[in-house]
Amino acid sequence: MEKTSHINIAMIEDIGTNGMAVSKVGTGVDGTKQRCGSTVSFHNIQYKVQQQSGFLCKRKILSKEILVDLKSVSLSFSALSPSPSLSSVFSSLTHYAHMNLQILSCREDVVMGTLTVRENLRFSAALRLHVSVPQVEKEARVNHLIKELGLTEVADSKVGTQMTRGISGGERKRTNIGMELIIDPAVLFLDEPTTGLDASTANSVLLLLKRMASHGRTIIMSIHQPRYSIYRLFDTLTLLVGGKMVYHGPAPNALEYFANIGYACEAHNNPADFFLDVINGDFTATAMTKVHGSEDLDFKELSSSRQSIEERLVDEYRNSGYSSNTRAELERIVKDKRCGSLPKSRTITYNSSFFHQLRWVLHRTFQNLMLNPQTSVAQLGVNVFLALIVGAIFFGVKDDQSGIQNRMGALFFITTNQCFSTVSAAELFITERKLFVHEYISGYYRVSVYFLSKILSDIALRTVTSVIFSCVVYFLIGLKSTAEAFFVFMLTVTLVAYTATAMTMAISADQSVVALANILMTITFVFMMIFSGLLVNLPSTKDWLAWLKYFSIPRYGLAALKINEFVGLRFCEEVVIRNSNMSAMTANCTVKTAGQTCTGEQYLEYLGIDYTCWGLWENHVALTVMMIIFLIIAYLKLRFIKKFT
């Protein structure tokens, strides 16, 4: 994407002792003190997107203009028209993260559904207010904001998730807005704050925004088909068509402007709907229908008329007094020494230390984990259930030839189960992807803090489930009855779960669809399972395929479990022969049938496994190295996707 943007914010605020923006206070006509609003100016905004079309051999790259030479000045309570290019406006603005300019896409939630309204706002205050701000002041700000947003009655109610019922849609929107207002920004960008709300709730949200704007905060927003009671709240209106400006000026004057250029709004028609009809060409289609007296219009004629009206609207505005006034105002702003141009830097500053962020993010992550039964209780229950099933199937294995097969089957199932059970980790980054990108851009925390919190919380869950699974399945099957063997078994099972989880994170970190990530992980685990050492005799594998075994997590886990279990076991019958002349002496002989494997060491040699002490720990080291590599890949992917997905 190509972006050539220049955004100015009039520097009329002072920086307080705590590092936060403090707007200057002026005196109103009635003598009362009023907070002065900020002026945001847009200079020559250009936004292009590179699109690919065609097949691989004939692929073409086309450049599509989304925004074309936009110039505007916004102050107080402003609105941007619903437009396909509007998301690009907010996308380009994310490159200018700033402590006095906050951007919020209200189409997605930026709150944690398992937490209460107060807990979400407290989280924002803890990470976004400077560390020098006392905790008492942070709490007071949270309480004041709850009261200002009208959330007092639901302050201690959970926001709600897809699984649990929470607060209403309007209260959720106000909580989203409150997350940004915690730092008292001078400029607030809102992308469709009324999406998903009924008319009454949408009206209450807009009245709240209007009240905040009247206290000196500049609010720039997009909105989808507002009703008249909402439209009349706007101070400034900006209309775009095809990425080009067709109107920018006072909202009350918009109807008069369009009437003067030949587009009069009918009585009792909603101005917002009228503007959309005009810029989309529907107004022309209606007018032509009335002229021709027929609804059967030629498609080419209609398309041509829409194209011509778009060009006319752009030309009319370019030659209007509103456009000339905007250009003059922009020239004045550029010359004004008080005006500062924001750098085109993506550097994000933080108001708290790494460990302060880690404490709060880790606490929220663990709290979200515990309050999500589908990720905690369900996983624990499934693991206990599978342990009971496996234990019942292989209950009480014997030290004979059948015991070899049963042990191999049990250990293979345990290893593969540990791998496939980690598929749930794919949702760690995918479900919270938009929340993470928003919070990172807004300066809540570092990428490393978020990543480490997710890793630690998931490791805790995998540890608990692996330990419980091991305790149940080990003694039901009747594996080697020594304390050392049991703890090595538990360590191996847990290490396999860790490594498989790390691989799942590495695969899913840059994915946006859970189903696709699950498919990729399933295919990967199936190939790993084939080269685990049970389905295929690895020493007999062809050289051009043998290298695949080194990438198999189940292979290392299964090899370690086999060494731990089979070393020292005997699988042939022992017969006691008593010497008739020496009754006090006995000799034990092992009776071996042709084709039988009598010792665990013999079986391990047949499989090509080094069963020495180093051979056991070598597999543990290999799992640890793979886990570290996968975690590094996952972290690098996470740092990449945060670059404005």
Shape: elongated
* Average of the residue pLDDT scores: 79
> Helices and strands: which structural class?
alpha/beta
How helix-rich are the residues, as a percent range?
Answer: 40-55%
Poorly predicted regions:
1-34, 80-99, 288-294, 582-588
Q: What is the count of helical runs?
A: 23
The Cα radius of gyration reads: 34 Å
Biggest beta-sheet profile: 6 strands, mixed
Structure commentary:
The chain is elongated, with a radius of gyration of 34 Å. The strands form 5 sheets. Strands 9-10-11-8-12-13 form a 6-stranded mixed sheet, with helices on both faces. β12 and β13 form a beta hairpin. The relative contact order is 0.08. The model is unreliable at about 1-35, about 80-100, about 290-295 and about 580-590 (pLDDT under 50). The chain has 2 domains: about 75-290 and about 305-335, Rossmann fold, CATH 3.40.50.300; about 355-570 and about 595-640, no CATH class. The protein has helices at about 85-95, 115-130, 135-150, 170-180, 200-215, 230, 255-260, 270-280, 280-290, 300-320, 320-335, 355-370, 375-395, 400-420, 425-430, 435-440, 445-475, 485-510, 515-530, 545, 555-565, 600-605, 615-640, and strands spanning about 1-10, 15, 20-25, 25, 35, 40-55, 60-75, 75-80, 100-105, 185-190, 220, 235-240, 245-250, 340, 575-580, 585-590. The chain is α/β, with parallel strands linked by helices. It is built from 23 helices and 16 strands. Belongs to the ABC transporter superfamily. ABCG family. Eye pigment precursor importer (TC 3.A.1.204) subfamily.
